[in-house]
Amino acid sequence: MRKGIQRAGRIAAIALASTLVIGGSANLLVQADAATPVTAEVKIDNFSFGPVSLTVAPGTKVTWTNRDDIPHTVVADDKTFKSKVLDTDETFSYTFDKPGTYPYFCSIHPHMTGQIVVK
Questions:
Q1: Are 112 and 48 in contact (CB under 8 A)?
Q2: Residue 20 · residue 12 · CB < 8 Å
């Protein structure tokens, strides 16, 4: 009988410790997410955006970098964002705060298209 009580006490202690660890980990994860800025990158290369479609969480800052020798722009179909003309190695950044799908294109070369999905 005494061994049964001791065993039940150990099981309860392990369950309590597991709950504390899981709860503590969740809080650390939230704090790490809040303290660490979330970023993503799209490269402009060979007259295309890469990746063509990028999925990010709300609050993510996306940066486009022009790796071509030709100038390009980044313009949202709905005009939510619009870069200046980007020469080689220049960048443009935009932070996506709201969920949704944001298709965009290069206004100089309209056949160049991409999209950012925020969810």
A1: yes
A2: no
Q: How far is CA 46 from CA 1, 69, 71, 72, 77, in A?
A: 76, 9, 11, 11, 21
| Rounded to 5°, angle at Cα 51 from 80 and 116 | 25
pTM > 0.90: no
Sign (positive/negative) of CA torsion 79, 84, 90, 92?
negative
For the chain, 119 residues long, the average pLDDT of each consecutive 10-residue run is 51 39 32 66 98 96 98 97 98 97 98 97
Q: Are strands 91-96 and 75-76 parallel, antiparallel or unpaired?
A: unpaired
